[in-house]
Amino acid sequence: MAARGKWQMDFGCRDSMGGVVDPLGYEARAYAEDESGKGRLRIDEAKLSAAKMKRAWATATKPVQSIGMMGFMLWMSGASLNIFSMMTVGSALWQPLSAVLKADDVFSPFADDRNNVLLPKLVYCLINFGGMMLGLWKLNTLGLLPTHVSDWESGLPPPLSAEMATAGVAL
Question: What is the spatial distance between Cα 30 and Cα 20, in angstroms, rounded to a whole number?
Fold first, then answer.
């Protein structure tokens, strides 16, 4: 065998690794050999399913954080009509609506034969509808929702008069 320099290593010899300790978190029994002889990671399906469901619930309750921030932004936008308040209200209405429309795409990675993601998806949609209600509340405080009879007055027929007054006629 040729003499090796100071910075050379012989990768063909396995005896040199006899005293090396496995790194933290490494478990040799987590790998099993299949019939081809290659090692593969054993996956516990029940644990994977439980982890997916836990992530689905975390995703379902995530919009609660954004509702608080949106409520604060709506409060800070004031009670007058200006471009900032209109952009904030538009955002408060559009974000929950688009989130509800994309709910199937959001929860598709968590769905499998063991997990029913209908309940987390329902919670996700309800929380987003709560955020949309905040936007509708702000529209009402700005006076942009037609909630009074006077808002619909142009569509009402004129009332019939009970009396009629005429001017006197000179003879």
Answer: 19
- Rounded CA-CA distance 11/63 in Å is 53
- The number of residues making up the chain comes to 171
User: Residue 81, SS3?
Assistant: coil
DSSP string, 89-148: HHHHHHHHHHHHHTHHHHHGGG--SS---HHHHHHHHHHHHHHHHHHHHHHHHTT-S--S
Tens-place pLDDT, residues 31-48: 655 555 555 555 678 888
pTM of the model: 0.66
| Radius of gyration for the alpha carbons in the chain, expressed in angstroms and rounded | 34
pLDDT digits 0-9 by tens, 44-100: 788 888 999 999 999 999 999 999 999 999 999 998 999 999 999 999 999 999 999
Locate the domains of the chain by residue range.
45-145
Give the C-alpha separation, 117 to 138, whole Å.
32
Which single residue is written with the structure tokens 């209109």? 86
